[in-house]
What we know:
Layout (H helix, E strand, L loop, with lengths): L1 H23 L12 E9 L4 E4 L4 E3 L2 E6 L5 E6 L6 E10 L8 E5 L3 E4 L49
Parallel strand pairs: 1-8
Antiparallel strand pairs: 1-4, 2-3, 2-5, 5-6, 6-7
Amino acid sequence: MHRVIAIALAGASLLGATSLGGCSSMSWDMFKSAPPTVQVRLESNPPGADATTSLGSGCKTPCSVSVPAPDAPFTVAFALPKYQPASVPVNVIRNPGDFTTPASVTTDPNPVFAELQPAAPPKPVRKLHRPKKPKPAAAAPAAAPAEMAPAAGSPFPDPNAGKR
């Protein structure tokens, strides 16, 4: 019986060693905090513009987006039909914190605001003025019509007679 208990203890110690060995391969990454995110408010005048950050997230104004805090400034592009597009640069401000306050990340400006200008109306399409081609002239009559010429034996004398 002592042998059975010894074998059981030996088996249990092998199982425990294997499970403890798994703990030794544990990564320290689980203690790292997730990268901070920043909540950015996006507004435009007129509202309803499509706002897209250069970091990839976007929405229709007025709205808020959560973006991972970048190490460098980013931009927000605003677009609305019949208005000129606008782009607003956004600075990232990192406060390292100290013993009494935690580190924080903010953006300037927040809210990000764009005043959209109406697009210029398209220039009217001007048709090229082409001079009209003259219509071909009808063949000129060779002689004056009969009613215009003095008839022979007319009671009215021809005023041009003799001047020709």
